[in-house]
Every structure is written in structure tokens, then in C-alpha cells.
Amino acid sequence: MSPGALFLFSGTLFIYSVHRLYGLHTTRPAGDSPYAKFSFLLKINTTLSAVACAVCWVYLPDLARWHALAPAALALAYTLPVLPGRRRLREVALLKIFLLCACWAWLTVMVPAADAGMGWSAVAPVMVLERAAFIFAMASVSSVREFFSFAFASVRPALISSPPSAFSTSLITVVIALPA
Fold first, then answer.
1. Contact present, 161 and 146 (Cβ < 8 Å)
2. Where do the domains of the chain lie?
3. Residues paired with 87 in a beta bridge
4. Are 103 and 76 in contact (CB under 8 A)?
5. pTM score above 0.85
6. What is the largest CA-CA distance in the chain?
7. Is the pLDDT of residue 44 over 90?
8. For residue 104, how many C-alpha atoms fall within 13 Å in the half-sphere facing its CB?
9. Which is more confidently placed, 96 or 44?
């Protein structure tokens, strides 16, 4: 397996683990909850995935490192509170879905291409846009589902999903799906 693939896998595992650990830190679940009981496993997972990610980073070609740098920084800013008022990028209305699309499209097209020594080509931007549109279509359906499941459960999400954002993501998905 290539260093780029291992970097993406371990980096994804690291980001998800950090996200869950931060959630545990801020919500402080009861001591008998499964999250509290097994939080040590999340800490081990976070540590191992960070080490694996760092080792893979060393073996990545320079171009792949540059391509991975901005999405990796955005992923951390998405997960950890970097905005005023200890807010995360995921708490900014309408930004969540676009960050997800941009980062995943870039990481799954440009980093593997750079890792394989392909560099930049005329096809790469088209591939990134196609991948972003595909991820956007999947994520917008999930966003709409999330909004309605919150509404059904009488839960008010924190600026993540709202009727305007659910409507706009649905509308944009329909427009993207229309034949050219």
C-alpha cells in the first residue's frame, strides 16, 4: 500500500477520533455510558493513528505533502474550536457541507495523484470538481435527513442544519443533477 493511501486512512481515523474525544470532553457523559467506559480506546486509537499519519507523512513526496497540508489544517479546524467563542468550523451555517466536499475531493484526487508522481494535469481540476459534485450530492441528502431527524426528535441543532441550508443544499443538488 502506498504512503499516500496509508496517510489518508490514518489521517481520517485520527480526525474522527479527535472529533469524538472532543465531543466527550465537552459533553462529559455519565460514567456508566459506553462512551465514557471505552474512551481509553479512543485515546489509544487517536495516538496510534497520529503516529501512523506522521510516519506516512515522512514518506510522502513533497508535492503530495503540499496538496495534503491545507485540507488537513481545515479538517483540524473543523474538529477543534479555533473560532471566537470556542466554535468550530462545523458550527458555521452552510460551511460544513462545502468544507466536506472540497477537502474530500482534493484529498482523494490530488494527494493520490501527487503520491503516484503524476503531478498536475489538465484533467485533475475536472476530476476534483466531479468528485466534489458527487460528494456534495451524497452529503446534501445526509444533511437534509439530519435536519428532519433533528426536527422529529425535537432537537435544535447548533447552526449546522436549518431549513434554509437544507433547502439550499437540496436545490443545488437538483441543479447539479440536471443534464447539461
1. yes
2. 1-60, 79-180
3. 83
4. no
5. no
6. 55
7. yes
8. 18
9. 44
Phi, psi (5° rounding) for residue 83? -95, 160
Around Cβ 173, how many Cβ atoms within 10 Å? Answer: 19
Whether 173 shows a pLDDT value over 60: the answer reads: no
Chain position carrying cell 479512543: 42
| Average of per-residue pLDDT values in the chain | 79
- Single out the residue of 161, 159, 160, 127 nearest to residue 144, CA to CA: 161
Count of residues making up the chain: 180
CB contact set of 109 (below 8 Å; sequence gap of 6+): 124, 127, 128, 131
DSSP codes of every residue in 62-109: HHHHHHHHHHHHHHHHHHS--BTTTB-GGGSTTHHHHHHHHHHHHHHH
Contact status, residue 153 vs residue 146, Cβ threshold 8 Å: no
Residue 153 has pLDDT above 60, yes or no: no
- Return the pLDDT at 172: 52
With beta carbons less than 8 A apart as the criterion, state whether 24 and 35 touch. Answer: yes
**R_g over Cα of the chain:** 18
Q: What is residue 163's predicted lDDT score, i.e. its pLDDT? A: 47
Q: How many CB atoms lie within 10 A of CB 141?
A: 13
